[in-house]
Amino acid sequence: MTPTAHRRVWRVVLEGNILTTMLFPFRQRQTPEPATGDEPLRVAHLTQPLAPLSPALPLGEALHALREQQVAWLPVLEGITLAGCLSARGVAQRIAGDPGRAETEIAAFALEPPPPALDPRFTLDDAARVFASADAGMLPVIAPDGRYLGIVTLSDLSAAQAGRLYPPRVGGMATPLGVYLTTGVVGGGVGDLGLVLSGMAMALLFWLAQALLASVIAVTYHFTREPLAKDALNLLKGELYISRDPMMTLWLWVGVTALLFLFFLLLMRVAPLLAGYHAAEHQTVHAMEAGKPLTLEAVARMPRVHPRCGTNLWAIMQLSLVGLGALATWLSTDVGRYTLPLLMPVAVVLAICIAFGWRALGGWLQQYFTTRRPSAREIASGIRAGLEVTRCHLTIPPTERQHPSRRIWNMGLLQVALGIAVTWPLFQWLTGVLDRLLISLLQ
């Protein structure tokens, strides 16, 4: 086996394709092979679905459809073939001064000849010549058997010719093996093994945060014999403790939760792989959304904070957890039950703070904890994922119906959950060992 073949096999193993074949064979049928660099893009790759109209549709409803779609014209089908089109300009000329025409059928009043059609087998150069002669912003795509397939816009054609036709919406995830990006229909970058390892790494970091905090509290109690330290350890283990002082219990709950959250964020920040790949994922998605070239220099200039990052969701969950935990602790006391009417305004203020502050908190957490300045190798991983997901996106026929299970799988959350589930028994055993060590410190 040649060195090149060795590298190819090793990459297959790292990207998780062997695990995919053994455990998740249906993934292979869901994600197409990327188009090769020698295969030119064709009109079929750029075709977008555009719902056609019926010739019997009243003109007023057709005009509403034009406004909703925000296009210059809509196709009108007779069976499966394109009978003509309805354009906003043509209707405006005909309906001026005669609003009663709104109930007239399209076929009897406003049907116009369709613009020149594109064959789905046309190359980009072929399509450009048709667009130049038609002087239109979009053209219909008609199959060789006469079926209407959709439309191609001039902006998409120009972007494809410039190599900037990225998927309209891309999400992703950082893994210990690199960046994973997905449109929901196709994925690019590292494979299932990387996503499973990401779940295992997150579970490990959370367990380490809990273990470190428990150890710090136990050592503090060993040297100080402070009863609050023992109560905090019980709270950390999930044993709700109600002290004689309700406010002390409240602050103890908030303090333990906040410290656990802080320890986890610090471990995320110093983790050798996740934070850098997380930043590279965000920067690659920013570059694709801005239409920038996927080069090292362009991607490196993009911001590390992204508004759709899961850290934002995590922030609102943590804020809600602290707020609900504090509220539950307070209500479990006699004082809390007596002051229930006073808690309603406090709960409303807390909800407003969470609603308006979670994005800002999420962005701050991304900037200073869950991402760091990525290396050139980490950015290159994001670029590879971006190019691969773009090639795969272009090989999927836009009119193909996508099964919901494909989108759920390609999100990567199931693989992450699998990684957490696999490591859970090990961490449970380690937790038992740690508990025995901490009990010896508490005695």
Description:
The protein is mainly alpha-helical. It has 2 domains: 44-161, CBS-domain; 171-304 and 371-442, no CATH class. 62% of the residues lie in helices and 8% in strands. The protein has 20 helices and 7 strands. The protein has helices at 3-14, 17-23, 27-30, 43-46, 59-69, 88-95, 106-109, 124-134, 154-161, 192-224, 227-236, 246-270, 274-289, 296-300, 310-331, 334-338, 340-370, 376-395, 404-410, 413-442; strands at 73-78, 81-87, 138-142, 148-153, 171-175, 178-182, 187-189. The protein has a 3-stranded antiparallel sheet, sandwiched between helices. Strand 3 (138-142) and strand 4 (148-153) form a beta hairpin. The radius of gyration is 29 Å and the shape is elongated. The relative contact order is 0.12. Residues 1-38 have low confidence and may be disordered.
